[in-house]
Amino acid sequence: MCSESYKSESVDNLMYCMFQEYECLELPPPSPENNATCREPTDAVVSGINNAYAAGDWYMQYGFNDQYDCFDCQLLSWEFPFQQPIRYEAIYDLTAVNGTTIWNDVVMHGAEETPGVMTLKGRDSGFENVQRFFFLVNEIDTQMIYYCGDLMTWHFEGLLIMSKTPSELNPMHIPLITEKMAMLDIKWDDLCELSPEQDCKNIPSFN
Predict the structure, then answer these.
(1) pTM, two decimal places
(2) Residues 103 and 115 occupy one common structural domain
(3) Residues spanned by the domain of 21
(4) What span, in angstroms and rounded, lies between the C-alpha atoms of 90 and 182?
(5) pLDDT tens digits for 60-73?
(6) How far is CA 196 from the centre of its chain?
(7) Nearest-angstrom CA–CA distance, 69 and 108
(8) What domain count does the chain have?
(9) Which residue of 60, 132, 151, 193 shows the fewest CB atoms closer than 10 Å?
């Protein structure tokens, strides 16, 4: 039986109980998207994250991983409280089995353990996981992050290209983004293009 702290009708808590707390079930063998080797692009990261630039809300414009990055709407945000862990939040939409749209809210916490690289820990859909965020572009209106993560026997990676507003990316930063993508051996054709200006109009607030 699951521990008292997780006795809830919450699907997240049930998943945690079955897969991680009591190991009643195992994850299926990983798909190619969940069997990735981290590219460790330490040579491409910024010299240190500019917290003032990174803080606040960001709209996803392009993503790399079909399972993790390519939701119709994805709003990411960072908070840098004084002498406390960094707070990261991702709000994104999913299509339920019955065809309705549902919204997921994921909160993780961590620190910039080496310049330009943030390590975050938290729970997503009931699973504890660890992710490393490599900040490749850290401008006041444009942000690009390569990430890799571990969830039990699964290992995944992705690329987040974001703008401060739901409108398109500032074209001034396209050459730098393209250069950093080449260092990862990723091309524009490998990415999904999102439309946050259209698809994030009804994004809910979880605060």
Answers:
(1) 0.83
(2) yes
(3) 1-29
(4) 26
(5) 999 999 988 999 99
(6) 16
(7) 17
(8) 2
(9) 193
